[in-house]
Design the sequence.
């Protein structure tokens, strides 16, 4: 008996083994105890009846051990995304108005030295209270506009990546097309590369379809890779574009030679002098950089904002002096 007590003391004091001998030979698996305790400490709020996306922890700390949580789901209506280094985003596809709530469950599993334990969290995904059209792509939305099955004021929702932040607003893309989120209340939280879910009334400014300033925005993921394709165009062809007949031009980036015309406002002329291009929704630092080239022909990248009047496009310049090339 004394020998066993001595061994038990030595093991606990050196902490070299995960199984501790106590009493007359019974064993306590400290690794299993650790993961059991850690799994029990996993917490997600508001999961019982969900009507919005949730956040979940990536890690749980117990007894000084930081353990990663492996999250899994059991439903096609649930997607788990990496939000940042410490957080997961749980994204739900909600049932339509009048449909039944959908049951779901999440399982968070922790592991340490080959021992595992899990915690299951379950609830219901609640249907929309009002009719919202969840579009799989921006292009499908534009197709419905053309088919006259989507009207201004209809509530819509879709997911896209922030690919350009302009003055007070931003553009998002899903790889099929671009959409403007105008004067978003969450603008201070938005970063390039954010994957976001936007819901709101379908609206229009001049030729540009957009979400208005009361849109609901949920950031799903940070630092998502994206690429803005740049199309070379002449200033005369840029003026000839018409967003009323071709809505796919909105939010696109064009590389163009134009003549800076800095009066009360910073605008531009076509190289042949026959057309006007309005510089719009650009930060003051960008328009100030253009003023230094007043009357000169420059090459810059611009974002097509809207067709303000026939043959009068509004474009956005986001660069600085280093992004302006003088055309000799």
Sequence:
């Amino acid at each position: 008996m004394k020998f066993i007590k001595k061994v038990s003391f030595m093991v606990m004091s050196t902490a070299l083994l995960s199984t501790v001998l106590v009493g007359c030979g019974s064993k306590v698996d400290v690794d299993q105890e650790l993961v059991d305790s850690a799994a029990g400490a996993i917490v997600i709020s508001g999961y019982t009846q969900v009507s919005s996306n949730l956040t979940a922890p990536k890690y749980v700390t117990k007894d000084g051990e930081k353990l990663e949580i492996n999250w899994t789901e059991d439903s096609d209506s649930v997607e788990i995304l990496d939000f940042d280094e410490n957080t997961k985003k749980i994204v739900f596809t909600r049932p339509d108005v009048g449909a039944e709530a959908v049951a779901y469950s999440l399982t968070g599993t922790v592991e340490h030295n080959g021992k595992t334990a899990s915690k299951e969290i379950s609830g219901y995904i609640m249907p929309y209270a009002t009719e919202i059209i969840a579009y799989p792509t921006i292009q499908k939305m534009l197709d419905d506009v053309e088919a006259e099955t989507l009207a201004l004021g209809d509530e819509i929702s879709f997911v896209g990546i922030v690919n350009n932040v302009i003055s007070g607003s931003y553009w998002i893309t899903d790889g099929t097309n671009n959409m403007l989120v105008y004067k978003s209340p969450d603008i201070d939280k938005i970063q390039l590369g954010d994957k976001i879910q936007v819901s709101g009334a379908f609206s229009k400014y001049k030729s540009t379809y957009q979400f208005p300033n009361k849109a609901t925005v949920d950031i799903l993921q940070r630092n998502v890779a994206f690429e803005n394709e740049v199309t070379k165009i002449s200033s005369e062809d840029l003026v000839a574009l018409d967003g009323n007949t071709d809505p796919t031009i909105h939010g696109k980036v064009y590389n163009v030679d134009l003549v800076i015309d800095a009066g009360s406002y910073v605008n531009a002329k076509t190289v042949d002098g026959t057309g006007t291009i309005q510089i719009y929704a650009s930060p003051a630092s960008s328009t100030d950089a253009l003023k230094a080239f007043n009357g000169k022909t420059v090459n810059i990248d611009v974002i097509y904002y809207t067709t303000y009047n026939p043959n009068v496009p509004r474009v956005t310049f986001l660069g600085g002096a280093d992004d302006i090339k003088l055309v000799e």
Notes: The chain has five helices and 26 strands. The domain at 230-326 is CATH 2.40.50.500 (OB fold (Dihydrolipoamide Acetyltransferase, E2P)). Confidence is low (pLDDT under 50) at residues 1-17.
